[in-house]
């Protein structure tokens, strides 16, 4: 940009105005070009207006010089005839003052304009000839003003054309932003959890797992043959998962199975729909209560979110729980996260806000005391954040158990027994003995069954078709494997609810959920003994080395 100086005024002329039209991207910016052209026309108009104003002032000075010469002669002749000499002397002094100032081209503008007005008023009061002369020369500026009309018209037309160009470009840009936003949401929705499933195995620095399926099957077979190795030297704590409060029979059969064998077994009384950190604190207090009440170490078996809650308790409060917990078995637990929770609560996908509102309505309103964080803590983002911040202790054995749900058509007819409904009092006959009382009481209870296995089969089929991953209907197999744990991968097709609820179809030739839980805890005891022996051998070898 260069400057042009005209009588003390600096006018900027855009020498390189068009150089900024093209940006570093190499594409032609139409709006930038039109803005530069508009700036060029504005500065041309300013320059032409300044030249016109200067030219008009020059013409006025020439005319006023001629008027001064004529006025002096006229004043001399009329002074003898008109008695108003005071007014004429004032007029003559003003004329002389203005005549001397008109010889200078660069006179003060404000003073010149005030003097010109004064002259005109005196011309009107003194003589019609001066008035006619002034009015005759007053038409000169209007000529130049009328000559500027085409330029004003060009500028107006250009601005209208520029506005007509800007409007469609603005709407086009708005449409592009909207299309990109919709495309991004659609892409994120279709992509889903494809990049998150199995992130534990892909993360560098994670401890590899060990396969313990063969050992588990041997223990399970021995248990079915009557070889029970669990003793009463531990307290066994079963930790339920999400929505366990809605099913009164959650883990009830397993607890009854252990109690019949004389084992101290408890079901943790926690709110399964609470957040992971809240339940971790509750479990920490529960474990300490059991330990100080019995003096025995506690073996933990958590199902689904219960396993995640138990792992969080050990990760956060291991300093308080060290020496009080003997081992942890995670059964079908989404330790790395679950695509079900992530696909529901993922931000930036289509209808994400509406889906979240519906989920909050179900968890917080329909389920009494529920918390949206209970499901949010099972998403991949939350699990990554938690696992990277809290590591599991290496002193205790950990088992990861996961399975694959069946998607065969026969599963659709399978019903799951989740609760009992008691009928109102009926006048049934009572024979006075305990056995008849039990029969009467059983006759008043009606089993509540739902097609839970069918729902798990549909969900497992969905995850298999969308992501190509094997799952139990809720948790994929890769996300259930805890780094550094012993992994159990049974060959049977077991859905997510099979381990805690009784099915209406039972095969006496196959192990049930209670026997599998016993096999897992027996394996956990053996792994704990092996870790203790390795620790003692390591300490003894260090002593011999010293």
SSE blueprint:
Elements (H helix, E strand, L loop, with lengths): L1 E5 L2 E5 L16 H49 L6 H18 L6 H18 L1 H10 L1 H9 L1 H43 L7 H4 L7 E2 L1 H12 L9 E6 L12 H9 L3 E4 L8 H19 L2 E7 L1 H12 L1 H4 L3 E7 L7 H7 L6 H15 L6 H4 L3 H10 L8 E4 L14 E7 L11 H10 L1 E6 L1 H16 L18 E3 L13 E2 L9 H33 L1
Parallel strand pairs: 3-11, 4-5, 4-6, 6-7, 7-8, 8-11
Antiparallel strand pairs: 1-2, 9-10, 9-12
Low-confidence segments: 1-28, 80-116, 118-141, 430-442
Distance separating the two termini: 84 Å
Mean pLDDT: 76
- Rg over alpha carbons: 47 Å
Helix content: 55-70%
Class of secondary structure makeup? alpha/beta
Biggest β-sheet description: 7 strands, parallel
Number of strands: 12
Q: Estimate what percentage of residues fall within beta strands.
A: 5-15%
Q: What order do the strands of the largest sheet run in, or round the barrel if closed?
A: 3-11-8-7-6-4-5
Number of helices: 19
User: What gross morphology would you assign?
Assistant: elongated
Please characterize this protein's 3D structure.
With 546 residues, the chain is an alpha/beta fold. Helices cover 55% and strands 11% of the residues. The chain contains 19 helices and twelve strands. The chain has helices spanning 30-78, 85-102, 109-126, 128-137, 139-147, 149-191, 199-202, 213-224, 252-260, 276-294, 305-316, 318-321, 339-345, 352-366, 373-376, 380-389, 434-443, 452-467, 513-545, and strands at 2-6, 9-13, 210-211, 234-239, 264-267, 297-303, 325-331, 398-401, 416-422, 445-450, 486-488, 502-503. Strands 3-11-8-7-6-4-5 form a seven-stranded parallel sheet, with helices on both faces. Strand 1 (2-6) and strand 2 (9-13) form a beta hairpin. Helix 3 packs across helix 4 (128-137). The longest helix has 49 residues, at 30-78. Mean pLDDT is 76; it is low at 1-28, 80-116, 118-141 and 430-442.
């Amino acid at each position: 940009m260069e400057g042009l100086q005209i009588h003390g005024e600096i006018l900027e002329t855009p020498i390189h105005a068009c150089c900024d039209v093209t940006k570093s991207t190499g594409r032609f910016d139409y709006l930038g070009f039109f803005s530069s052209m508009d700036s060029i026309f504005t500065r041309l108009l300013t320059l032409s207006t300044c030249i016109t104003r200067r030219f008009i002032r020059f013409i006025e000075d020439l005319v006023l010089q001629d008027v001064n010469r004529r006025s002096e002669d006229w004043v001399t002749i009329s002074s003898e005839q008109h008695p108003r000499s005071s007014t004429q002397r004032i007029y003559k002094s003003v004329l002389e003052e203005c005549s001397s100032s008109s010889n200078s081209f660069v006179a003060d503008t404000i003073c010149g304009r005030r003097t010109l007005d004064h002259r005109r008023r005196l011309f009107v009061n003194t003589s019609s000839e001066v008035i006619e002369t002034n009015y005759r020369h007053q038409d000169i500026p209007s000529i130049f003003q009328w000559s500027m009309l085409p330029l004003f018209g060009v500028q107006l037309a250009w601005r209208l054309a520029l506005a007509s160009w800007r409007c469609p470009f603005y709407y086009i840009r708005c449409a592009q932003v909207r299309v990109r936003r919709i495309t991004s949401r659609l892409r994120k929705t279709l992509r889903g959890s494809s990049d998150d499933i199995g992130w534990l195995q892909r993360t560098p620095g994670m401890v590899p797992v060990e396969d313990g399926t063969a050992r588990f099957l041997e223990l399970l077979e021995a248990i079915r043959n009557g070889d029970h190795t669990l003793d009463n030297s531990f307290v066994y704590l079963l930790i339920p998962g999400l929505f366990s409060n809605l099913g009164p029979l959650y883990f009830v059969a397993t607890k009854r199975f252990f109690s019949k064998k004389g084992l101290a077994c408890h079901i943790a009384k926690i709110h399964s729909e609470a957040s992971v950190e809240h339940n971790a604190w509750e479990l920490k207090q529960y474990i300490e209560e059991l330990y100080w009440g019995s003096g025995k170490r506690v073996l933990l078996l958590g199902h689904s979110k219960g396993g995640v809650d138990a792992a969080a308790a050990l990760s956060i409060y291991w300093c308080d729980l060290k020496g009080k917990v003997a081992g942890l078995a995670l059964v079908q637990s989404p330790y790395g996260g679950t695509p079900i929770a992530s696909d529901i609560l993922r931000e930036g996908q289509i209808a994400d806000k509406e889906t979240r509102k519906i989920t909050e309505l179900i968890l917080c309103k329909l389920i009494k005391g529920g918390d949206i964080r209970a499901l949010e803590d099972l998403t991949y983002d939350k699990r990554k954040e938690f696992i990277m911040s809290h590591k599991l202790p290496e002193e205790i054995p950990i088992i990861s158990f996961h399975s694959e749900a069946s998607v065969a058509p026969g599963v659709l007819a399978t019903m799951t027994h989740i609760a009992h409904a008691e009928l109102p009092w009926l006048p049934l006959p009572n024979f006075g003995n305990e056995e008849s009382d039990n029969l009467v009481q059983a006759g008043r209870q009606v089993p509540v069954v739902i097609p839970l296995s069918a729902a798990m089969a549909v969900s497992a089929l969905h995850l298999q078709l969308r992501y190509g991953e094997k799952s139990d209907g809720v948790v994929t197999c890769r996300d259930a494997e805890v780094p550094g744990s012993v992994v159990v991968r049974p060959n049977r097709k077991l859905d997510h609810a099979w381990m805690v609820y009784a099915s209406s179809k039972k095969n006496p030739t196959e192990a049930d959920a209670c026997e599998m839980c016993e096999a897992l805890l027996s394996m956990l005891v053996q792994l704990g003994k092996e870790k203790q022996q390795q620790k003692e051998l390591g300490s003894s070898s260090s002593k011999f080395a010293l």
